[in-house]
Amino acid sequence: VKPAASLAIATAAVALALPASAEFAKPEDAIKYRQSALFVMAQHFGRIGAMVNGRAPYDGAAAVTSAEIVADMSKLPWAGFEPGTDKGGNTRAKPEIWSAPAKFKENSEKLPVETIKLLAAAKMGNLDTLKTAFANTAGVCKSCHDTYRKD
Ligand code: ASC
């Protein structure tokens, strides 16, 4: 390898080793961001849950509105789990999120896939279809919480 080429390789190696640039001013902001997205998502997922569990009357339009919010929110929390945000705020996130990030990413990507199906089900306007999609989505929520959330 010529000197110029080895310099290029060394430069590339250093660039790859650098952490992704922080998107948040401080860890607390990243923690609040992910918790806020999850909170809004849970509020609207809960409204759909109330309908499918018979605690609220079925309202097809309201279900679609909530499912749209759930689908949008489901894309957001993950950016808030950036390196260095395992502490610095009030969080129940487990260290495994940062010690095995590829596995966490693979898991997190399951949620938007499922919430798109939830939205499609809501748009069908059929409570039984919505029930099934709700249960499938809740399963993805739960498996991530079981693995990556303390208590
Ligand atoms: C919800 C909510 C969750 C999930 C989870 C599913 O309504 O807020 O985090 O469902 O409890 O088991």
How would you explain this protein's 3D organization?
There is one protein chain. This protein has 151 residues and is mostly helical. Helix content is 69%, strand content 0%. It is built from 7 helices and no strands. The model has no long low-confidence stretch (mean pLDDT 92). Bound molecules: ascorbic acid. Ascorbic acid is lined by residues 42, 45-46, 49, 138, 141-142.
Summarize the structure.
The longest helix is centred in the N-terminal third of the chain and has 26 residues, at 27-52. With 151 residues, this protein is mainly α.
Spell the H/E element sequence. HHHHHHH
Using the alpha-carbon principal axes, give the shape.
elongated
* Contiguous uncertain segments of 5+ residues: none
* N- to C-terminal distance: 53 Å
Number of helices: 7
* Global Rg: 20 Å
Proportion of beta-strand residues: under 5%
Q: Which sheet architecture does the biggest sheet show?
A: none
Bound compounds: ascorbic acid
Helix/sheet category: mainly alpha
Helix content: 55-70%
Mean of all residue-level pLDDT scores: 92
Instruction: Write down how many β-strands occur, each being a DSSP E stretch of 2 or more residues.
Output: 0
Write the layout of secondary structure elements.
Blueprint: H1 3-17, H2 27-52, H3 60-73, H4 96-99, H5 101-108, H6 110-124, H7 127-148
Helix pairs in contact: 2-3, 2-7, 3-6, 6-7
The structure holds ascorbic acid.
The site of ascorbic acid has 7 residues, from helix 2 and helix 7.
Structure characteristics:
151 residues, binds ascorbic acid
